[in-house]
Hints:
single chain, nine-stranded mixed sheet, about 40% helix, globular
Amino acid sequence: MARDHLSATPPSEPAATVAEERKELLLSRPTAQLEPHGIRFRIAYALLAIVLGAAVGGFVVLLGRGGSGSHAAWSKWEPEGSDFVKTRDIANVVGREYRLPSGRQLVAVIPAVPPAVQGSQAVAITHIALAESSAPEDIEVFSTTNSVEYILCGVGSESGRCAIGEGKATVERARLLHRESLELALYTFKYVDGVDSVVTLQPPRAGQNPTYALFFRKDDFKDALGRPLAQTLSGREPFTTSDFPIVQQAQVARLVSPHVFRFSYQQAPDGSAVMVLQPPVA
């Protein structure tokens, strides 16, 4: 304020008068009271700036953490316990979601770890031979050491052999079974440690033997395992053939068709079984 008054003094004013006024202004200024308050205010403002800066910085950090660490649950349910218990619970929980028009469960889901040829005496399947064409060089062989097999077995059929006893075999029902198979595989890949492939045996038509299997490899579903399950398989349970929208059927066909094979068994020299997978008949 003193400098403002001095600067406003006309240049023609005598220097002595200016000096006297400056002295009187300085003597009359309550410096002993104003200066300490000024220091306190400056300190307070500095502290406030530090606090605000820390708050803004913390907010930015939280935003950064929220963008990278927060995520939606992969599924609404997660199995717990040993790998065997998880596999059993996956079969039971997923199996109950798929229904016939009558409300009965579509198929019983039977886990087999490790995979085996079912019969009066189960024979272990040690390898899977994937023949993507008739050319011998196109055969890939996989160990079943890290594989899980699910047998989808219908009930109520007079002929047995896991055929579904209710209704007729239709494209819609086959796609619903394929959806169930893919869900079983994705749950297994996500929650059961060490599993790198899943085989699901499909129920046959009445009077026939099981012919088709779906073979899924974990490496083919990295994207699906990195986002919530509902983004890969849409729809609400229970799923039935009478309420299976065509859009969802097309989605399942796109995801599953490359993994559908005819299967048969061959005996290995050591007495174990080899599951042979071949492309379905056109």
